[in-house]
Design brief:
Elements (H helix, E strand, L loop, with lengths): L4 E12 L7 E4 L2 E4 L4 E15 L8 H22 L30 E7 L2 E11 L4 E5 L6 E3 L5 E6 L2 E6 L12 E7 L4 E9 L12 E10 L2 E5 L2 H7 L4 H10 L8 H16 L1
Parallel strand pairs: 3-4
Antiparallel strand pairs: 1-4, 2-3, 5-6, 5-9, 6-7, 7-8, 9-10, 10-11, 11-12, 12-13, 13-14
Length: about 280
């Protein structure tokens, strides 16, 4: 059974398996590698690897821990080796807004938070990140850690920051017509999934008071791969009308407050509804 196909830049890896179906084809700096059980040795030459990852974890469970640890170490070494040449660091410099204001433009904190970024299918872990909610830009240090840069949004698949997962969606696709381009926090991944678009705005100053950043949250349910905006209990019940009575009873029993704690309420209702469907 074939697995996922992943293109990466890594040193050539020789695999010893004893299986006739596992082999390597080098040529003009490229090689084709079918992943298997045991790494025998590494050659210090660069090539493009096509990993055809097989579902061998179930076949040979005693080797799965070895494989996972070996690949994790190999991947860490790869990121270390490419250093500043990693595409993640190709973004333009980020300049902070110098306007005197109350509050800050970023998600959760005015200090950088730890997270990871999935960039063109590669995960970069343990990064210091800002998520600018005014510009919807993801910020990190350049490789030398002497300047801030914006991570190219069109190449970001998703990112996590301080335990919160954000996924990039693109407007114009059939199933994403109700949303705009950008990052959306995934609040629940059941069916229906709940997402929120978080934005901050800085109004023009009035009088002698400093302007104040204001946070806006827009919530969506993703049902059958289609996004629907939700701004209140009535709209939520309309979207879940096939189990409307059960949902209304759940809301009453648990005293969910949609006015004061809307985010908590919509997440709990979506989880309850998914349990009814399964």
């Amino acid at each position: 059974m074939p697995g996922r196909v992943i293109f990466v830049n890594l040193p050539l890896i020789i695999i010893q398996t004893g299986r006739s179906s596992d082999w390597i084809l080098p040529g003009k700096g490229k090689c084709l590698l079918f992943m298997s059980h045991r790494v025998v040795f590494l050659l210090g030459i660069s090539c493009h690897l096509l990993f055809a990852a097989r579902s061998f974890a179930q076949q040979i469970p005693t080797d799965s821990v070895f494989y996972s640890g070996s690949f994790s170490n190999l991947y860490h070494n790869y990121l270390t080796e490419i250093g500043e040449n990693a595409r993640l660091y190709n973004g333009p410099e980020y300049i902070r807004n110098g306007t005197k204001a109350t509050g800050f433009a970023f998600f959760q904190s005015d200090s950088m938070l730890t997270g990871s970024v999935s960039y063109n299918g590669l995960t970069y872990p343990d990064l210091s990140l800002y998520y600018d909610l005014v510009s919807d830009e993801l910020i990190t240090y350049n490789y030398a850690h002497d300047a801030l840069i914006m991570i190219s949004k069109e190449n970001v698949d998703s990112f996590s920051i301080d335990g919160h997962l954000f996924i990039r969606f693109i407007a114009g696709r059939a199933n994403e017509a109700a949303i705009q381009d950008g990052y959306y926090e995934q609040l629940s991944r059941n069916e229906p999934a709940v997402y929120v678009r978080r934005e901050k705005k800085l109004p023009s100053p009035s009088g002698y008071e400093d302007p104040k950043y204001k946070l806006y949250n827009t919530y969506y349910l993703k049902i059958n791969n289609i996004f629907y905006g939700v701004d209140g209990k009535t709209q939520l019940l309309d979207l879940l009308k096939d189990h409307k009575d059960a949902v209304k009873s759940f809301i009453r029993t648990n005293k969910l407050n949609f006015k004061k704690r809307f985010e908590e309420a919509i997440v709990r209702v979506s989880i309850f509804y998914s349990q009814l469907k399964n």
